[in-house]
Write a structure and sequence with these properties.
Layout (H helix, E strand, L loop, with lengths): L1 E7 L2 E9 L3 E2 L21 H4 L1 E2 L6 E10 L8 H7 L2 E10 L3 E2 L22 E2 L27 E2 L3 E2 L2 E2 L9 E2 L3 E13 L8 E9 L31 E9 L1
Antiparallel strand pairs: 1-2, 2-5, 3-4, 5-6, 6-13, 7-12, 8-9, 10-11, 13-14, 14-15
């Protein structure tokens, strides 16, 4: 869904909202020297391999805008020179987190004696649903325990091995993102210069409010860093300035 406001009364706006759902059984190409294809968890249960894509962000809103600040009257030359010619612009992004699939590397590794299989699903503890997986609270408060680790268990023992994990594909979402990029610019007409030259100044603020935006947590239950968020998805605030002379 798109909303457009063309430049009128010094203001322009473009907004785009997307609500989407993508389903698949794998979101990457894979190959095997033995099988020549890609396996995802229990090959006897193809329905379990089908679910929300891991690259899916269910909702996304992007807003871009441009606002030209009103200029003081030319009857006040000093104020007009100082306060005239300013523009405020920016791009604001709100988006859901990626869909996450939880694996258990300790229960993966081989199938029928071949080591090509490496994507075994984690086993949910009895009575646990997808609503129980993510720890309550803000993302910042659960950087070391994004998932409720008690929601997972070892899969049932069968003979000298384990059965397949029972968790589904794309069972929960990672951290969402809220980003603000802002630009402030001023154009000054230089009177008395050849061809009415202009001096342009621009300041740009990327991640303007220095909002912490975190990457996905580690989704391998066998990892020592399982359920931890160890990186950010967007860097800290960056400010840059530019000065340009047009003639």
């Amino acid at each position: 869904m798109n909303l457009t406001k063309r430049l009128t009364k010094h203001f322009q706006l473009l907004a785009s909202y997307t609500w989407t759902k993508t389903l698949d059984d794998t979101d990457q190409a894979g190959s095997s020297a033995t099988f020549g294809g890609w396996w995802s968890n229990d090959q006897r249960n193809e329905r379990q391999a089908y679910g929300p894509s891991e690259f899916l962000r269910p909702q996304r809103l992007i807003i871009s805008y441009l606002y030209t600040l009103p200029e003081p009257s030319k009857s006040m030359p000093a104020a007009h020179a100082l306060l005239g010619g300013w523009q405020l612009s920016g791009v604001t992004t709100f988006q859901s987190g990626n869909m996450l699939t939880v694996y258990d590397g300790a229960r993966s590794g081989s199938i029928y004696g071949w080591p090509q299989f490496t994507s075994g699903r984690a086993q949910l503890a009895p009575g646990v649903t997808s609503a129980d997986l993510v720890t309550a609270g803000t993302v910042t408060s659960k950087l070391n325990n994004y998932f409720n680790k008690a929601s997972f268990a070892n899969p049932p023992v069968i003979g000298d091995g384990f059965d397949w994990g029972n968790s589904a594909r794309g069972i929960t979402t990672g951290p969402d993102q809220r980003n603000f990029d802002i630009g402030l610019s001023k154009t000054t007409h230089l009177k008395g210069t050849p061809e009415n030259s202009r001096l342009g100044f621009r300041a740009e603020f990327f991640n303007a409010f220095n909002t912490s935006q975190f990457a996905n947590p580690v989704t391998d239950r066998s990892s020592a860093t399982f359920a931890r968020i160890t990186a950010t998805a967007v860097g800290p605030r960056v400010i840059q300035f530019a000065l340009k002379y047009n003639f």
